[in-house]
Design brief:
Helices cover 43% and strands 15% of the residues. Mean pLDDT is 89; it is low at 1-16 and 18-29. Helix 4 packs across helix 5 (177-185), helix 5 crosses helix 6 and helix 9 (240-253) runs antiparallel to helix 10. By secondary structure, the protein is of the alpha/beta class. It is globular, with a radius of gyration of 19 Å. The strands form two sheets. A seven-stranded mixed beta sheet has the order 1-2-3-4-6-8-11, with helices on both faces. It has a four-stranded mixed beta sheet with strand order 5-7-9-10.
Length: 296
């Protein structure tokens, strides 16, 4: 049930562009629309994906979607990735949603194909084996909120603005919003937010349970990122295989009845029993010292 934990990629510490196959940026300089970096030192194990398409407020166009899909494909088998954090390099914006200007140029058939790819992207984020966190320091509208909903955890600036606003554009959420929002908030509230296209502040979203934490914005405009990083640092010392299996047990168990969910938990627990980390955890408890988990 759990994706293989073999390492497929080792990332350097500095920000680096994603090397895509057959994808070029819309920008005149050919700059990539995302950057990936693995943190070092005490934060080793945390990997960040930075969305950086300022000309379109990180709107999800073909290039950005392709680069995100490729980044996830490269990272998903990397055992060194213990937490994956999504953030923005555009001040005041997390992700403004789908690129409607680009979509206007598409035929109906092309729109269908693109939305299917967009839905696939959100599914890949949701299925990522390590915990994922969205740091929402600004607008997260439509597909931008759907991206955050696909993450395990969400942190927002109190002043951030978010909502599934598709009905105000003659559309409905098409990248998982109609399914993930009711699972997050309950059916009636999700219907109210989708039917009205209402926008929420980060503070309102926290009150509803849509985000885990809401923090006051700072002068740099990255307060949510810093809180998300603190959250990642709390996850980092824990046994990575147990965390990943816990994610599987929760995600799979939420889709079935409780008896089946208990069976899924049992399967995940059985997979964790032979790990070195379980033995290390028991030894550390016995010896009254912090455990040193290695992910094996």
């Amino acid at each position: 049930m759990l994706r293989a934990l073999t390492s497929a990629l080792r990332l350097p510490g500095p920000w680096r562009p994603l090397r895509t196959r057959g994808c070029a940026s819309h920008g005149a300089t050919g700059d990539p629309e995302i950057q990936v970096r693995a943190l070092t030192g005490g934060d080793q194990g945390i990997t960040e994906i930075l969305m950086n398409r300022p000309s379109a407020r990180n709107a999800l166009g073909n290039v950005l979607v392709s680069q995100l899909l490729e980044a996830l494909a490269q990272l998903q088998e990397d055992q060194q990735v213990r937490v994956l954090l999504f953030r923005s390099g555009v001040k005041g914006v997390f992700c403004a949603g789908a690129d409607l200007k680009e979509r206007e140029q598409m035929s109906e058939a092309e729109v269908g194909i693109f939305v299917q790819r967009l839905r696939g992207l959100m599914n890949e984020i949701a299925a990522f084996p390590a915990p994922t966190i969205a740091a929402m320091d600004g607008f997260a509208l439509g597909g931008g909120l759907e991206l955050a909903l696909a993450c395990d955890l969400r942190v927002a600036a109190s002043s951030a603005v978010m909502g599934l606003i598709e009905t105000t554009r003659g559309l409905l959420p098409g990248a998982g919003g109609t399914q993930r929002l009711p699972r997050c908030l309950g059916v009636a509230l999700a219907k109210e937010l989708i039917f009205t296209g209402r926008r929420l502040s980060g503070a309102q979203a926290q009150a509803l349970g849509l985000v885990n934490h809401a923090v006051s914005q700072n002068e740099e405009g990255n307060a949510a990122y810093h809180r998300a990083l603190e959250l990642a640092q709390e996850i980092l010392p824990q046994a990575p295989i147990a965390v990943r299996l816990g994610k599987v047990a929760i995600d799979r168990g939420m889709e079935v009845d409780i008896a089946s969910g208990m069976a899924i938990e049992g399967i995940c627990y059985a997979q964790n029993i032979p790990t070195q980390d379980r033995l290390e955890g028991m030894a550390a408890f016995r010896e009254k010292r912090p455990p040193r988990f290695v992910g094996k």
